[in-house]
Amino acid sequence: MLTDxxxxxxxxxxxxxxxxxxxxxxxxxSSGTERKVRVxxxxxxxxxxxxFMTSGGYKRVFGEQYQSNAYMVRLKNHETSNVExxxxxxxxxxxxxxxxxxxxxxxxxxxxxxxxxxxxxxLILAAELLAVVILxxxxxxxxxxxxxxxxxxxxxxxxxxxVYRRLKTVDMLGALKSVE
Length: 180
Prior knowledge:
Blueprint: E1 7-10, H1 11-17, E2 24-28, E3 34-43, E4 51-52, H2 55-62, H3 80-91, H4 102-145, H5 149-155, H6 160-179
Parallel strand pairs: 1-3
Antiparallel strand pairs: 1-4, 2-3
Helix pairs in contact: 4-6
């Protein structure tokens, strides 16, 4: 819970600073002065490393009243080209030190989310190929064990090669059916 006595930091920041709840971390303000901040909690965030404080906590650590130094801008046109051109214009303003685009964060999240899907697709393909190879080998083993029976089938009017081909065909069809 966010309180006036400390800050909540992201997991990534905690990992980078080797900090745990109850520890005191050192941060540097914009003037280069080092400030001590107590870690009241660690939050799960998958992108970026952040520190969250109340206005009272900010005043306690930095010795001055909190003043907002950022603006949120919502564009009506969300196309990437428009966002980039507007960002380029905004960063040229005298008071602008940086711009954080929501589209960049969305792309990062999409990349992180899509990666396991690609890995799973590769694993499924490998499993399908393995199933085909195993069934093919089992068919060969089955036929080679029945090699003595093939002459009997020939005597009864069957062609050994034809029987062998039919067994392989049936097994391959079974393998393909199992892959579905």
